[in-house]
Amino acid sequence: MRLDAPYPNPFTTSTQFTLELEDTQYIDVEVFDLLGRKVRTIYSGTLAAGSPQAFQLEAGTLPPGEYLIRARGESVALTKAVTLVK
To answer: Could you read off the pLDDT of 50-71 as tens digits, one per residue?
Structure first.
């Protein structure tokens, strides 16, 4: 599984990143604050293996700060940090 670094980072309105799986599986892509609270679910569902999938995080009502994007599947979990500035 590969989770690319979000771009742009830091971001003001939105950031995007790509996730690619080695095996088809159910995946959750979620955003957490630094206190470990889930603040957003970007995607929950099955993704096919070997096909990069692009995702976008919209700032919306999130306050400025540091966040963690976590992609967690049946066999692996990856995390990337991102900074929201307004």
So the answer is: 999 999 999 999 999 999 999 9
